[in-house]
Amino acid sequence: MAQQLRLVIADDESLIRMNLKETLVGLGYLVVGEAGDGVSVVNLARELRPDLVVMDIKMPKLDGIQAAKVLTEDKIAPVLLLTAYSDRELVERAREAGVVNYIVKPFRDAELLPAIEIAMARYAEFQDMDKKIGDLQETLETRKLVERAKGVLMDTQGLKEQEAFRKIQQLSMNTRKSMREIAQAILLTAQIEK
Questions:
Q1: Where are the beta strands (DSSP E) in the chain?
Q2: Which residue, 77, 100, 181, 188, has fewest beta-carbon neighbours within 10 Å?
Q3: Do the Cβ atoms of 161 and 146 come closer than 8 Å?
Q4: So what CATH class is 6-107?
């Protein structure tokens, strides 16, 4: 049995939506919302924060690819597209919009479970990569601040590079503040004293 993922589904045809919901519930998923157009699905996903949005491409107001782009860029939810269209241009647009998987109709119910599981795994990988990138940017920014603070200590207190670094490290441990915070304080003090 699949883990109880919370899904929002969108298709402009209510009969297709009803069948899709029945299939998804039968597979063990929880359908927490339904929409008939792209604008509604974006608003619903913003409100409900589902684990996955499953939607058609051809919808009124905002097509599924444009909606997917919003949901992906705003980090609201991953998107699995279901569509009768498989031409190269649509597939390319879907890829560029950040869609995590794509199924061509008519599909068998058995194809839905692996497509959803793969979509969720891809999305988890993207989130992990995003976090790692954020952590690396934070580390790099901290390193730059510490380097600048070392320079200030070397200039103002006549310290050697290693001594300046050790002083920042010592202040960090003694005050239970991060080296970043200590570096920022040193740089701020240097600005005030100019």
A1: 6-10, 30-35, 52-56, 79-83, 101-104
A2: 188
A3: no
A4: alpha beta
What's the pLDDT score for residue 140?
Answer: 92
Identical fold for domains 6-107 and 133-192, yes or no, is no
Report the topology of domain 133-192. Answer: Arc Repressor Mutant, subunit A (1.10.10)
Which residues, 6+ apart, have CB-to-CB distance to 36 below 8 Å? 10, 11, 12, 14, 17, 59, 60
Q: What is the pLDDT of residues 53-68, one digit of tens each?
A: 999 888 888 888 888 8
- In the numeric block, the tokens 């103002």 are attached to 156
Q: Tokens at residue 161, please? A: 């590079």
Tell me if 65 sits within 8 A of 23, measured CB to CB: no
Sheet of 30-35, strands arranged across: 30-35, 6-10, 52-56, 79-83, 101-104
Q: Above 80 in pLDDT, residue 44?
A: yes
User: Which residues make Cβ contacts (< 8 Å) with residue 186, sequence separation at least 6?
Assistant: 149, 152, 153, 168
Q: What is the DSSP letter of 29?
A: -
Q: Are 27 and 107 in contact (CB under 8 A)?
A: no
